[in-house]
Amino acid sequence: MVIIASNFKTNHTRASTKEFISFVNEYLNNEKDVEVMVFPTATSLDNYKINSNLTIGAQNAYCVNSGSFTGEIGTQQLDEFGIKTILIGHSERRHILGESQESIAKKYAFYKELGYKIVYCIGEPLEVKEQGLEATLEYIYEQFVGIDTSYENLVLAYEPVWAIGTGVTATNEDIKSVHSAIKSKINKPLLYGGSVKVDNAAQICSLDGVDGALIGTASWIKEDFVQILKNIKGL
After folding, report:
1. Minimal CA–CA distance to 136: which of 161, 117, 111, 156?
2. Strand runs (DSSP E) across the chain, as ranges?
3. Distance in angstroms (rounded) separating the CA atoms of residues 203 and 181
4. Closest CA relative to residue 143, chosen from 186, 176, 200, 111
5. Which element (helix H / strand E) includes 224?
6. Sorting pLDDT into bands at 50, 70 and 90, what band is 37?
7. Is residue 90 annotated as a catalytic residue, yes or no?
8. Where are the beta strands (DSSP E) in 142-232?
């Protein structure tokens, strides 16, 4: 089954998130061949009534139930809304917010012990990509240090940093080469992310080794997101 995920990042309000989820959920009433994940902002988490193939997840949370961690949320807040899915390791948290591999691995271990579905993000910056596939893979494999890749509730997302929000999408050969190498070592669902759009999502998801997509900008308009789901139907 193809997995299509929408990462809202710092976009949408509580009201527009509710509208988005309702719209997508209505489409999924009659569509069971796709697994959909939506990652709203923390302020838009709620007890949404959704189909079994639609999951609401957290973009981030601290590795704690509750405590004195200003600006963070923990499992106490996630439990209120039944959230059991989380993004970990996104490049924007690594490169903009300075999360180290050590802190990411600590967070991963914490949520693994609680049985969360973890969408774990990996990817290389442009200066590494320009050094070739071997350098790219070496960089990516370093992002698995401290990560239990045998965890049964793990989904991987390969997002080349140079393709996120830039309008530049990796070529089919780029995607297939990296996905093939990762899948040969780690047998888990592997999504692609990085300038996935309405008009290229189906083609990307049809590539060998691609089990779906983690989408940012192109997924924020509800009609566009449902069009992506329609385009990939039957893959």
Report:
1. 161
2. 2-7, 34-39, 54-56, 85-88, 117-122, 154-158, 190-192, 212-215
3. 20
4. 186
5. helix 222-232
6. very high
7. yes
8. 154-158, 190-192, 212-215
pTM score: 0.96
Residues 94-110 have pLDDT tens digits of 999 999 999 999 999 99
Tokens standing for 218?
């192109």
Three-state secondary structure call for residue 134: helix
DSSP structure string for 151-164: -TTEEEEE--GGGS
The residue annotated as part of the active site, out of 35, 99, 124, 159, is 159
Main-chain dihedrals φ then ψ at residue 175, nearest 5 degrees: -65, -50
Longest dimension (CA), the chain: 48
Task: Considering the candidates 12, 35, 90, 99, report the single residue annotated as catalytic.
Answer: 90
Residue 137's Cα: distance from chain center in Å? 19
Active site residue 95: no
- Between CA 137 and CA 179 the distance in angstroms is 10
pLDDT in tens, 208-230: 999 999 999 999 999 999 999 99
Strand partners, 120: 88, 156
